[in-house]
Amino acid sequence: AVADCSACLPPTVPDEREVSVTCKLAAPVCPHLDFTINVPPSTRISEIARRICANHGGSIRDPIICIGRFHPADERPYSSTLEDCGVVGGATSLYYDFVAQGGAVLA
């Protein structure tokens, strides 16, 4: 039998740090689609991707995400956190792009 080691683990402490992340569509530049979220640096890129998709009313999925600038070589994996990407506080810009989905209504 495997011993339950949950009592051996330190208690989880909420991350009270905050980052102001402005999410911007990389191309075409559409300032009316920009939005800012305040999240802890422990936030995963996957959570930010989920919020980007929600901001588009669910009409996009799997956005490509870069921090600071948009370049395919700088694409961030969804499993990374902002902190993994070097963002631990203050404000940052996150750029995203996506491939249009079949059947999506583009306004």
What can you tell me about this protein's structure?
The radius of gyration is 17 Å and the shape is globular. The longest helix is centred in the middle third of the chain and has 11 residues, at 45-55. The N and C termini lie far apart (58 Å). It has 107 residues and is of the alpha+beta class. The chain has 1 helix and 4 strands.
Write the layout of secondary structure elements.
Elements: E1 19-25, E2 35-39, H1 45-55, E3 64-67, E4 90-97
Top keywords for this entry?
107 residues, alpha+beta, 4-stranded mixed beta sheet, 1 helix
Short note summarizing the structure:
By secondary structure, the protein is an alpha+beta fold. The protein has one helix and four strands; from the N terminus they run E-E-H-E-E. A four-stranded mixed beta sheet has the order 2-1-4-3, with helices on one face.
Strand composition percent: 15-25%
Provide the spatial order of strands within the biggest beta sheet: 2-1-4-3
Main β-sheet: number of strands, strand sense, barrel status?
4 strands, mixed
Q: What structural category characterises the helix and strand content?
A: alpha+beta
Radius of gyration: 17 Å
Order of helices and strands: EEHEE
Distance between the termini: 58 Å
> Mean pLDDT score, rounded?
87
State the shape.
Answer: globular
Number of strands: 4
Number of helices, counting only DSSP H or I runs of 4 residues or more: 1
What percent of residues adopt helix (DSSP H or I)?
10-25%
Unreliable runs: none
